[in-house]
Structures are given as structure tokens and as C-alpha cells.
């Protein structure tokens, strides 16, 4: 009886303790869907209020921070030196722990720079990739394990704009997705396949050595720029089958994580094969379905998971053809509690959409002065958004009501696109010039 009472007491006490703090290891967070189970996150803040610490960045970058235990990893440019850097900060104090120059260069166009790709870590190593092709693996303490340039190994990228897909680090495999057009761009020295065209492919590497595990070509019927995708692959398990989900080239497909073999594909949102529909948002999956966002002002599409072969005729669950506000050209949606959260940068609206039916549960209009292109983060009953100028909105997950607005960017800022990270009880907000740790003083992570 005493033993039973003690057990009951422990269970009751456990129910009153705060949820275990979660790491945010890579693009789209611990669940690969833009959400986390973090609680107690701040709702009210500014650049001078409720700030645990802030540090100055050496240059702008759209890369989202990665947080693991007591370290924050940042991909960044060095604007003055025109170089690319991998950095690590102490999560508790904001102290710079290490800074490694990975490559030379800054940008190739005026829409972004080479540090738009988010780093990825699993607590053992951290991977940094840049739009010029530089790819490097470091230990948590900053020791370089290996480095290579994908353009030198596989030929120059065939993209109209700077390539910005992020690495996926999952179960001791590093995945890189290169979905590019089938002919050289701007006179680039791209390598041609046996058919005389530049191939698109999924690449898998050993993260501690850089050794290739497999490379699988991914053909599609898309044309010209519509072959290009800046999306990042995501893993998802449904009915016991794990897949790597890829979106781009006018279609979405699921692949075997061990071999890259294609299980299924659905498409297309582009039946007339428009040639300028490059794709940016990554896929987001949950409850046996996956969402793909067609480009520009086109609808979003939700496809049933678990298929085999070509499921184009029967795999579509619903789309938003009848809900024009639900469209996303750049931000990747989030998925939580059975619903999709779609930020429309082309409609200036945030939407909550029922996952089963596609019914719009609420729509919140957003200011139109700056574009809203950082992907939404859903946590602790709130949605965190940031626009190109560094204006942050905190919305109620339940109703869409705007709870708080904070101008985190500096006057004249533009092009801010890093998503807001929620980890270990704090928010991490990356603007062009600063990295903020928002909320109460951080504590050492439990291990």
C-alpha cells in the first residue's frame, strides 16, 4: 500500500512539472512540422524588453538557428569580408563559443545571399550548407570533420536564383535535395546526364565522413524554372513506413530513407506546365497526409500518405481552390493538433485550416507594408510570425487574434526571413543584424 501511494504521489507531482524542454535541431524543428511542445513561452517582448541576451551578427542571413542543449548554431555571412561562417553561441549567456570560416563569397543576386540554408544538428554533429555549394560537418565543439563543395563534385547548380535548400540530418544519414532545371543557367558549367540534361537528385551521405551512401535521380515532367525547388526534404512515418518527402518539379513524392527509391508520387498542380513556377515551401505532414504549396497565388494541395506508384488520379484529399486566401509562395506551413497553419505571403493572411476537410477555421489579415516570408512557428498555444522588416506578430493558435506586435528589426531592414525558434523556454529571433534570446534567463539543459 505504501509503495502504491508513493507511486501515485510521484505521478501527481510529475503532472505539475513543466514539459521537458525541447531542442530545435534543424529546419522546421523537432517534429519537422514547424511546431514544438514547449510551454511557458513569452508573448510580450521588444528589442529592449524581456530579452535574456542579444548578440550582433557579422552579416545578414535567412538561415533559421538550430538549438541543441546549451548551444545555438548559426549560419551567417560576414558582410564586410564577403565570407561564409559557421558559428556556435552559448545558449545561457550568448557568448560566442566558436566561429569557423567555411567559404568565400556572399551572393549571386539581390534577392538573397549564400547563408539562407539552415544548419542541422542531432546532438552529435552539426551540418552547415551554403548556396555556393559549400557543405561542412563539425563536432559540437567546432572541430571540422569534413568539408566539400557540391558544385565541384556534381557540377554547377542550374538555378535561376541562389539555391537555398537546407540539409536534413536524420537517423545518422545526411540528405541533400538538388532539384534543378535540366539545362545550364547563365552559362554555368553544369554536368549533364546520359540524356544530355542536367539531372535532379536526392543525395545521402554519411554525416561523419561525407562519404556517399546513395544518389538517386528524380525526374519530372516540369519545364524550365518549374523544375527548380528551394524546398527541404522532411522525414515522416505513417502506418509503420518511414519516408523522405520531397516536393518540387510540379509534384510531390515519398522515398525510401535507406535507398532513395521512390515509393509514390502525386502531381500535378501545374497541368499546363507553366515554365516559371519554381517552388519554395517544404512539405509538411501529419495524421497520414502531406501538404504541398503550389507557387505564386495557386492553391495548396493535401495528399494521402501510404500510397504506391503514381497516385495522381486518387491521392488528392483536398485543395484550396475555393479558398483563395489559403496560398503560400514562400513560407512553409505548420501542422498541429490535426490542422494546417498556412501563412500566405501573397495574400498577407494567416490561416488555420482543418486537416480533414480543408475548411478554413479562421483567417487573420496582416499588414502589407513588408512581405511575410518567415515560416510560422506554432508553440504553447501561439503562432509566431516575422516579416521582411523584422516585425513580429504573436497570434492565438485557437482564434487567430493578434496578441502582440514587436518591431525586432532595425530601421530600413528588409529581406529578413529566418523563422522564429522556440526552444528550452525561450524564443530565438534572427534579424539582419542581431540574434535575440527572448524570455526569462535561460537555464542549463537537463541531460
Keywords for this entry:
447 residues, 5-stranded mixed β-sheet, 2 helices, mainly beta, Methylamine Dehydrogenase, Chain H
List the helices and strands and how they pair.
Blueprint lengths: L1 H15 L18 E2 L14 E6 L9 E3 L2 E8 L4 E8 L5 E9 L15 E2 L3 E5 L4 E6 L4 E6 H5 L13 E3 L2 E6 L22 E5 L6 E6 L16 E5 L2 E8 L2 E5 L6 E5 L17 E3 L2 E5 L6 E5 L4 E2 L5 E4 L14 E3 L2 E6 L4 E6 L5 E6 L11 E3 L2 E5 L4 E6 L5 E6 L13 E3 L2 E5 L3 E5 L9
Parallel strand pairs: 1-28, 18-22
Antiparallel strand pairs: 2-34, 3-4, 4-5, 5-6, 7-8, 8-9, 9-10, 11-12, 12-13, 13-14, 15-16, 16-17, 17-18, 19-20, 20-21, 21-23, 24-25, 25-26, 26-27, 28-29, 29-30, 30-31, 32-33, 33-34
Strand residue content: 35-45%
- CATH architecture assignment: 7 Propeller
* Chain-averaged pLDDT: 94
Taken together, the total number of domains comes to 1
What is the class in the CATH system?
Mainly Beta
Fourth CATH level, the homologous superfamily: YVTN repeat-like/Quinoprotein amine dehydrogenase
Instruction: Assign an overall shape.
Output: globular
Integer-rounded radius of gyration: 21 Å
Spatial order of strands in the largest sheet: 1-28-29-30-31
Distance between the termini: 33 Å
* Structural class assignment: mainly beta
- The level of helicity is under 10%
Low-confidence stretches: 1-19
Query: What fold name stands as the CATH topology?
Result: Methylamine Dehydrogenase, Chain H
Amino acid at each position: 500500500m505504501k509503495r502504491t501511494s508513493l507511486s501515485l504521489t510521484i505521478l501527481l507531482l510529475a503532472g505539475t512539472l513543466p514539459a521537458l524542454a525541447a531542442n530545435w535541431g534543424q529546419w522546421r524543428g523537432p517534429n519537422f512540422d514547424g511546431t514544438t511542445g514547449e510551454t511557458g513561452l513569452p508573448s510580450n517582448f521588444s528589442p529592449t524588453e524581456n530579452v535574456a541576451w542579444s548578440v550582433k551578427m557579422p552579416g545578414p542571413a535567412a538561415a533559421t538557428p538550430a538549438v541543441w542543449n546549451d548551444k545555438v548554431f548559426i549560419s551567417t555571412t560576414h558582410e564586410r569580408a564577403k565570407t561564409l561562417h559557421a558559428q556556435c553561441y552559448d545558449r545561457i549567456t550568448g557568448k560566442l563559443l566558436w566561429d569557423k570560416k567555411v567559404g568565400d563569397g556572399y551572393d549571386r543576386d539581390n534577392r538573397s545571399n549564400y547563408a539562407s540554408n539552415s544548419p542541422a544538428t542531432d546532438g552529435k554533429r552539426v551540418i552547415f550548407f551554403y548556396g555556393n555549394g559549400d557543405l561542412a560537418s563539425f563536432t559540437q565543439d567546432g572541430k571540422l570533420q569534413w568539408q566539400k563543395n557540391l558544385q565541384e563534385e556534381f557540377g554547377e547548380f542550374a538555378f535561376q536564383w541562389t539555391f537555398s535548400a537546407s540539409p536534413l540530418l536524420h537517423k545518422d544519414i545526411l540528405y541533400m535535395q538538388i532539384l534543378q532545371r535540366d539545362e545550364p543557367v547563365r552559362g554555368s558549367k553544369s554536368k549533364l546526364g546520359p540524356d544530355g540534361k542536367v539531372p535532379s537528385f536526392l543525395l545521402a551521405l554519411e554525416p561523419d565522413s561525407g562519404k556517399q551512401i546513395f544518389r538517386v535521380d528524380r525526374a519530372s515532367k516540369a519545364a524550365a524554372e518549374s523544375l527548380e525547388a528551394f524546398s527541404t526534404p522532411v522525414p515522416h512515418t505513417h502506418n509503420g513506413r518511414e519516408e523522405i518527402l520531397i516536393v518540387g518539379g510540379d509534384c510531390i513524392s515519398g522515398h525510401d530513407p535507406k535507398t532513395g527509391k521512390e515509393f509514390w508520387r502525386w502531381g500535378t498542380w501545374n497541368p499546363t506546365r507553366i515554365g516559371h513556377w519554381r517552388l519554395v515551401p517544404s512539405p509538411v505532414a501529419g495524421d497520414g497526409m502531406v501538404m504541398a504549396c503550389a507557387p505564386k497565388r495557386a492553391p495548396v494541395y493535401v495528399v494521402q500518405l501510404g500510397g504506391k506508384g503514381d497516385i495522381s488520379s486518387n491521392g488528392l484529399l483536398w485543395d484550396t481552390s475555393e479558398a483563395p486566401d489559403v496560398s503560400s509562395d514562400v513560407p512553409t506551413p505548420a501542422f498541429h493538433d490535426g490542422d494546417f497553419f498556412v501563412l500566405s505571403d501573397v495574400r498577407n493572411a494567416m490561416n488555420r485550416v482543418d486537416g480533414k476537410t480543408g475548411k478554413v477555421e479562421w483567417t487573420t489579415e496582416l499588414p502589407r507594408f513588408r512581405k511575410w516570408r518567415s515560416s510560422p512557428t506554432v508553440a504553447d498555444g501561439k503562432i509566431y510570425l516575422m516579416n521582411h522588416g523584422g516585425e513580429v506578430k504573436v497570434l492565438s493558435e485557437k482564434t487567430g487574434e493578434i496578441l502582440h506586435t514587436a518591431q525586432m528589426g532595425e530601421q530600413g531592414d528588409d529581406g529578413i526571413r529566418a523563422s522564429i525558434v522556440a526552444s528550452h523556454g525561450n524564443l530565438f529571433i534572427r534579424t539582419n543584424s542581431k540574434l535575440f534570446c527572448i524570455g526569462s534567463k535561460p537555464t542549463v539543459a537537463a541531460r
